[in-house]
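Model: Ready when you are.
Researcher: Fold this.
Model:
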Amino acid sequence: MFQKVAILGVGLIGGSFGLELKRRRLARQVVGVGRSKANLIQAKKRKLIDTIGVNLESSVRDADLVVLAGPVQAILRHLKDIAPHLKKGAIVIDVGSTKQTIVDQASKKLPKHVFFVGTHPLAGTEKSGAMAAIPDLFRGKSCLITPVATTHPVVLKKVMQVWQKMGAKTILVPPKEHDRLLAYTSHLPQVMATTLMNVISQGLPIETIKQFSGGGFRDTTRIAASPAEMWRDICFSNKPHLLKAIKIFQKELTKISNFLSKGKQKKMLNYFESAQSLRQKIS
């Protein structure tokens, strides 16, 4: 499918993408680029990539597909840095968790002879680095594809086919709508888990938390262990939508606090039952 693929950021998503390219024989050569030499050595040892890129310029030169798989700010920097070195007809995709800013910058920074398609596989975990990459990470998961009016239809189809061959279910969504939806389904939950972890740590020592917490606590706070740099970038790149979601959540916290302080047991019961019913429908 591709002669040469360059992956910029060989972590959980980028590494798993490289692994699937090789397992499914979708690329003849996979080059990995990143800040950590040790991580890239691990990626090559685990056969996520074939070679370690000497530098950004030579790694993307002659690449048929370039995958931007770092944090959002790194993706934005890379769009500018790789632009002069891409061959005619090269395809660039990103796997970032926000889309509008990235898509806008891609249209400004990349030359006209290069094709860009925004993608977002909903397959993340709290782990990071090449050691976190696993086979079949994308199987059965949704991959959101965010084309715009200028997206070439043939290139869009090819990008969708790559994700489908990796087992993902591709869903087309406009970039702005993607960011609005993910503010509620991904970014707000991350903020909630992070905040909960920080609140609990203020009142309890770590050992006490370990001894007195069960599965509910671990499930609720699991994603608080996610890479901090990545989530800082996501929050700020989706600032308007996330702020709106946080404001709504704050109102809901106030509502349940009022039920509790005013002894409104029936309303509290209805509130829990409503959430219970909704969650069961998702399951």
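Researcher: Now this one.
Model:
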Amino acid sequence: MTDNVEILRYTAFTHDPEGGNPAGIVLDAGTLSDDEMLALAAKVGYSETAFLTARDDERRAFQVRYFAPSAEVAFCGHATIATAVALAERLGTGPLLFDTRAGEIAVETEIVDDVLRATLTSVPTRSRPAEEKALDETLAALGWSRDDLDPAFPPHVAFGGNDHLTLAAATRERLADLDYDFDRLKALMEREGWTTVNLFWRESDERFHARNPFPVGGVVEDPATGAAAAAFGGYLRTLGLGSAEFTVIQGVDMGRPSTLTVSIAAPDGRSRVSGGAVVIQDA
């Protein structure tokens, strides 16, 4: 039975309850089945809900699974940040270790300028060129053409816990005008094993704008995607582009502005993704 399960609701990569990406959090999910977790995630309706299926508070180590409304995902960045902030509020700041289906994720929580922030270190990232056929099918589903892409950033499939097709828009206007074929893109993404399509526009080497369609999770778009930001760090590192530390602005076109700070943490391409999270008071 799930009627008595306590579900926390936070929004990540913001300090404003009206911004960021909302996430559900279940801190005591050890007795829940897969079907029950999926049903709860669908009931919550956010892009992901995090479930702590095992916990060792003394070691600050936790087993975490992530469910979207229609599927489980191996890793979710914004729900990781939200969960880390919720735990730090209860256990105190310091290091946390999350055992996820993508691998172990170290998270550091700290107070910066009187604000609680969390920084996750991803699994090793990697990036490879996208296949031409899949790229053409994606552009058709988006209603884009190759002329809409920035040739300075080749299309890749980037990994930072999940695979994300990564496409650079040639203009901010192209990025803002997003109206895609949900079912067509979902079927393609399921076939290719992509979690989101990370669409971005380069404002500068230190500042990028992003949008992330997420139809495979039953969600039109993610307001902030930490896993895609981690993968994007690996993408830029592979290509030798951008800066070693940069900001991703996401959610603006949805009315939920989010700020993700990304840096390359290690020679193996692990990315560090930082942000805050706050309780959604009226949830």
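Researcher: Key takeaway?
Model: The domain at 8-123 is CATH 3.10.310.10 (Diaminopimelate Epimerase; Chain A, domain 1).
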